[in-house]
Amino acid sequence: MTVEDEPDWTNRDRAYSRQVQRHMERVLAADLLVVVFPIYWQSTPALLKGWIDRVWNYGFAYGRSAPRLAGKRILWVGLAGATAEDPIVAPMVELLEAQLSDGIAYYCGFAKSAVAVLPDAEDQPQSVDDRGNLIVGKAPAGEELATQRRTFDRRVLTAVDEFAT
Ligand SMILES: Cc1cc2nc3c(=O)[nH]c(=O)nc-3n(C[C@H](O)[C@H](O)[C@H](O)COP(=O)(O)O)c2cc1C
Fold first, then answer.
1. Residue of minimum CA distance from atom 23 in ligand 1
2. What pLDDT score does 67 carry?
3. How many CA atoms lie within 13 A of 157 on its CB side?
């Protein structure tokens, strides 16, 4: 947050910084937003949180009787280092849905919001055992690694297609 981009609760038409206004214009121009981010501690990285704090600002994203973002759709694509079998994935999805869809997108008038959590984002499989030890497996090499990455890319595109159609 910067002083220039702090909300002024008495002025919903406040002119925010030029940088933030440019981002607002990009958001306004889109019908469908896809936000791709690595999941950090069951949440968004600070950079993405800061983008929301500054760009989804008072008078733009909320604070009007007719929200300017109303009717748009947004897909939050969270890449997770956890493996698909890890029991932490399901609660992670719930947390992110509550935070990003209910807490932010629907609060701002979006018509549709969903979180797609994509586990296995790391080349090396990662899990935590019942004593809290991080177990990092071996990454495949060569063509096997290339195939693993292509498969992951396809999963991202499929998630976007399914949301958009
Ligand atoms: C600070 C930090 C926190 C992380 N927290 C989580 C987490 O809570 N759950 C998870 O599955 N992965 C977690 N990860 C793993 C990242 O999600 C993973 O490394 C990332 O999605 C890989 O994408 P990238 O190569 O684009 O960074 C974390 C990584 C970092 C650096």
1. 38
2. 87
3. 6
Give me the domains of the chain, ranges plus CATH numbers: 14-164 (3.40.50.360)
Ligand 1 contacts CB of residue 78 (under 6 A): no
pLDDT at 29: 98
Q: What is the mean pLDDT of residues 45-73?
A: 96
How far is ligand 1, taken at its centre, from the CA of residue 117, in Å?
12
Ligand 1 close to Cβ of residue 159 (< 6 A): no
CA dist., res. 143 & res. 127, Å (int): 24
User: What pLDDT does residue 49 have?
Assistant: 98
Segment 20-45, tens digit of pLDDT: 999 999 999 999 999 999 999 999 99
Q: Does ligand 1 lie within 6 Å of residue 39's CB atom?
A: yes
What is the layout of strands, in order, in the sheet containing 32-38?
Answer: 32-38, 73-79, 112-118
Ligand 1 pocket member 79 (CB < 6 A):
yes
Alpha helices of the chain — where are they, by DSSP H? Answer: 18-29, 46-55, 89-96, 142-164
Q: Pick the residue whose CA is nearest to atom 29 on ligand 1.
A: 40
Cα–Cα distance measured from residue 34 to residue 61, given in angstroms and rounded to the nearest whole number: 17
Q: How confident is the model at residue 84 (pLDDT cuts 50, 70, 90)?
A: very high
